[in-house]
Design brief:
heterodimer, A: alpha+beta, Alpha-Beta Plaits, 2 helices, 38% helix, globular, B: Arc Repressor Mutant, subunit A, four-stranded antiparallel beta sheet, 22 helices, TFIIH_p52/Tfb2 (chain B), Tfb2_C (chain B), transcription (chain B), nucleus (chain B)
Chain lengths: 73, 471
């Protein structure tokens, strides 16, 4: 029988997906319902906002951006 | 974000239960409005064909009208009709499928097309001449002023351009409350700030804005003790009225009289006083159910096509070094620009500034998307800019997109994952149906999985298939 699973499709590039999977495994897999392919994962609808916030934090830690100065102002 | 205004109204309408639809279809004006602006063209053709048909229309005969390659268009049209409960698919004793036009809808549409009846659903013009008659120019100015006040309230107070005291007089408490309920603005400790939904709202064309606000209004009618059906049929009636004509309020119901007050605060109708026996629809009202742009917006927001055809030309110049010059003195335009631009100088007829990473990411954080910014800049590009194709310097366009992408690395779509199909054919059939409905977001043929952002039509389809399978 066909199953319909409620959730939120998250589309991202492969590097971001690796981070998402990493976060998920550190939190007893409470976010990801299903790993779909290299660029898509299915996430629990109620946890999306929290998941995104954690991703933002992780990116801030890992990717230090060079400060851009608006010198020609 | 839905592009066309009627699309939004359609999305709202399909969610209503069947009883509400049935009640709505009692009014010829409602039926005509639904027919005119909610249905795809093919659906109109099907309805017209069935309108004077004495017997139900067999599905096999309908099928014969279409070439195989037209299947997806046909499915879309039929699904729209079924969701609005305009046609019903039924099975007769011999287990053949046939379609039937809903009785109430058919009756009302016939009445609307051929006239007759005493339904008075198209408004009753006032019989006594109005001593304070107003002309269309006045009505346009009134509608524009009211509407721009609402927009300015949302944008202006966010960027802190407006002196809030002056604003609070201009727009009513009810309107403010409504904007808050619709989640277009947030009020935190007395300070008003715009939300993600609010941005989308402000950047839409006027007609779509009107519908967005009215839909919020509709959602909250039960709390105000009004009947949703009454409100909706009144709105559809407004769409069929004539600009510059005054209509009597004596035929309106209690709810509709109450509505008039709110609608005049939005600038959708005009009344000379609170107790006037007549009301005038403004251009915002009469374009509710047409796709023509509302308000010949000379200085307000409008869609790309509308702004090009209007006499007012674009006023924004963007240079390859990200500097931006805008020839405008409208406070509304300036405050919108300042949402995503670092404005530095203001002259009597010009403001100048710069698109910076900081200003764009701030806008993105507030919920405005790069495509919205670009479409705003493109549609208001200065005639000098319009000599080049594309109007904006490509480097600037790319950079704005990249700035957005840096902040927003994932794209989310709520919906349903469909899996565990028994056979390849079952998978392909349902996937193709989902594709033709336009709900298919992602699919993986090897796993036989796919993801849709709407499931109710699919489950209907599957149920139908199960019953058909029992033949």
């Amino acid at each position: 029988m066909v199953k319909a699973i409620r959730g939120t499709l998250v589309k991202c590039d492969a590097s971001v997906k690796a981070m998402l999977v990493d976060i998920d495994s550190k939190h007893r897999n409470e976010f990801i319902i299903e790993d779909l392919d290299e660029e898509h994962v299915l996430v629990k609808e109620t946890k999306v906002a929290q998941f995104k916030a954690m991703l933002q934090n992780m990116m801030k830690e890992k990717l230090k951006e060079p400060e851009l100065s608006d010198s020609d102002d | 974000m839905s592009g066309s205004s009627s699309e939004q109204a359609y999305e709202y309408l399909v969610l209503l239960p069947r009883q509400t639809h049935t009640k709505l279809y009692e009014q010829p004006s409602t039926v005509l409005a639904v027919f005119r602006c909610m249905l795809p063209h093919l659906a109109k053709t099907i309805v017209m064909a069935m309108l004077y048909m004495p017997t139900p229309f067999s599905a096999v005969d309908l099928e014969a009208w279409f070439r195989p390659e037209g299947k997806s268009v046909k499915d879309k049209a039929l699904s729209a009709l079924e969701r609005l409960h305009i046609i019903q698919a039924k099975q007769d004793a011999t287990r053949h499928m046939h379609y039937e036009l809903s009785k109430g809808f058919a009756n009302s549409l016939r009445q609307a097309l051929t006239g007759g009846g005493t339904h008075r659903s198209f408004g009753v013009p006032s019989s006594t001449p109005d001593p304070n008659k107003v002309d269309t120019e006045f009505l346009d100015a009134y509608a524009r002023k009211q509407w721009e006040n609402i927009l300015f309230y949302m944008v202006g107070s966010t960027v802190g351009l407006a002196s809030s005291a002056q604003l609070s007089q201009d727009i009513g408490l009810g309107t403010k409350k409504l904007l808050e309920m619709g989640n277009f603005v947030q009020v935190r400790s007395g300070r008003v700030s715009i939300t993600r939904e609010g941005f989308t709202f402000v950047l839409q064309e006027t007609n779509a804005q009107v519908w967005s606000l009215l839909i919020v209004y509709l959602r909250h009618t039960p709390e105000l003790g009004m009947s949703e059906t009454d409100v909706l049929s009144f709105l559809f009636m407004l769409g069929s009225l004539e600009l510059g004509q005054d209509y009597t309020t004596s035929t309106l119901s209690e709810t509709q009289l109450q509505m008039l007050e709110d609608l005049s605060a939005f600038g959708i109708v005009y009344r000379s006083s609170k107790n006037a026996a007549t009301f005038y629809p403004t251009r915002l009202a009469v374009t509710l159910t047409s796709d023509a742009g509302a308000l010949s917006t000379s200085d307000s927001l409008s869609s790309i096509s509308a702004s090009r055809s209007s006499s007012q030309q674009g006023f924004i110049i963007v240079e390859t070094n990200y500097r931006l010059y805008a020839y405008t003195n409208s406070l509304l335009q300036i405050s919108i620009l300042s949402l995503f631009t670092k404005l530095t100088t203001r002259f009597p007829n010009l403001v100048s500034g710069k698109l910076t990473k900081e200003s764009i990411t701030r806008a993105v954080k507030l919920g405005i998307s790069s495509s919205q910014i670009l479409s705003y800049l493109t549609s208001h590009a200065h005639p000098q800019m319009q000599k080049h194709q594309p109007f904006l310097p490509p480097t600037v366009m790319d950079q704005i997109r990249l700035w957005e992408y840096e902040g927003e690395r994932v794209e989310t779509t709520p919906g349903f994952l469909m899996r565990d199909f028994k056979s390849w054919d079952e998978y392909r059939d349902l996937k193709e149906y989902a594709e033709s409905l336009g709900v298919l977001v992602w699919h993986h043929d090897e796993k036989r999985w796919f993801f849709v952002n709407g499931v109710d039509q699919l489950s209907l389809y599957m149920k139908k298939k199960v019953t058909r399978g029992g033949e």
